[in-house]
Amino acid sequence: MATSARSAATTKRTLKGEARYEKIQDLYSGSDGCIKLCVDKLTGEKVAIKYIERGAKIDYDLKCGILNHMGLVHQHIILFKEVFLTETHLCVVMEYGAGGDVLEFVRCHGINEVQARWLFQQLIVALEHCHNMNIVLREIKLETALLDHSNWPLLKLNAFRYSKRLGFQDAESLMKPRGSPAYLAPELIDSRAMHCCSSFKATDVWECGILLYAMLFQSYPFCHSDDRKGPDQLKTVLLRTVDCKFSFPKDVPVSDECKDLICRILTHPKERITLKEIIEHPWFTKDLPQGALDMNQTLRLRKGTRLQTKKEIEKILDDASIPAT
Fold first, then answer.
1. Which domain holds residue 21?
2. CA pseudo-torsion sign 276, 271, 182, 58
3. Threshold 0.85, pTM exceeds
4. Which residue of 93, 160, 179, 306 has the smallest Cβ count within 10 Å?
5. How many domains does the chain contain in total?
């Protein structure tokens, strides 16, 4: 009886989802699923829908990430819309970042220090909001920072796959390394460094520093182009990271203030600058738009358009963890 009821509910959601959205084109396909650009036929708005295979891929991390994303409504965070089921996939409907990700933007257009600061300021404002909500992201990188257009772009974070809400998860789960080795913080490589870390939020700050360096120099601070590929390459990168040993390319002009900020971020956790200190740093505050620092305090946020309650979303996620038959 319970199975029949669940099937009926799933069918209803599937029909609603399929009827509401019409595919425009494929955007991405990988081992973690695919993303399609669609149009919401009720509103005419373009949305991105991520398709994730039902069953084992709907794991604890994914469920936490979706529930965390659901509660964040902010100008610099990709807006979560809803989830629905097809016979084979969980579908996550989100705001569409029409300008692609920052990695693509930097590769295609290049970026100077002024532009990098503009994007970094938006990133930090978004991260401050997440931290105010006791959510750590753990996957801040060029690919999870999206843009809403490509002309002096507005940055929107979409880094929630491994996010966790502090106080609801044990410390052990937060210490598990996630993502690319290029972004790993020393405390996630050598657990002894975590003992000096006063907050898991410091790891998000590290990732912001890696992203800023990568925007400016189109390379990663602890990955060298002349590293020999093979089993020793990863070990070499991780050793450099633990030692916080990096340098700045001499052929890219960057101000001393900017280098100072990066150096204060990409250091051992006990010495690392905090988010509050980043916001007060002279390089960060230069050309900062009026009211930017008041955004989170005054809750000057976009109106949410979430179509479901948390309870409804949790039910769909639980159903999605059952493999398709």
1. 2-96
2. negative
3. yes
4. 306
5. 2
